[in-house]
Amino acid sequence: MKAREFEKKFDEGKEDITKYLDISKARRPEQEQKRVNVDFPLWMIHLLDKEARRLGVPRQSIIKVWVAERLEKAS
Fold first, then answer.
1. What's the pLDDT score for residue 50?
2. Mean pLDDT of the chain
3. What is the residue-wise DSSP string for 34-68?
4. If you average pLDDT over residues 59-63, what whole number do you get?
5. CB of 10 within 8 A of CB of 17?
6. DSSP character at residue 20
7. Dihedral, CA atoms, 67, 29, 33, 60, nearest 10 degrees?
8. Contact in structure between 23 and 12 (CB atoms under 8 Å)
9. What are phi and psi of 26, to 5 degrees?
C-alpha cells in the first residue's frame, strides 16, 4: 500500500488501519522496561502495602509513581 492511500484511510477513520502496520518491531522510546531488585526494610513494605490496599493498586504501582514524582521534581 502506498503512503498516500494509507494516510487517506487514516484520515477518514472509517477502517481499522492497524492491520496494515508491522508492529513486531515497534517500541516506545524512553518507555522500555528493565527489572531491578531493591531491598526495603520491613516497615517500609508494611506501609507500602497499607497504602496500596487503600488505593486498590499493587505495591509496585505505588513505588513507580512515587519514584517518578521524585525524579520529575529533581530534574
1. 97
2. 92
3. --------HHHHHHHHHHHHHHTS-HHHHHHHHHH
4. 96
5. yes
6. G
7. 40
8. no
9. -70, 145
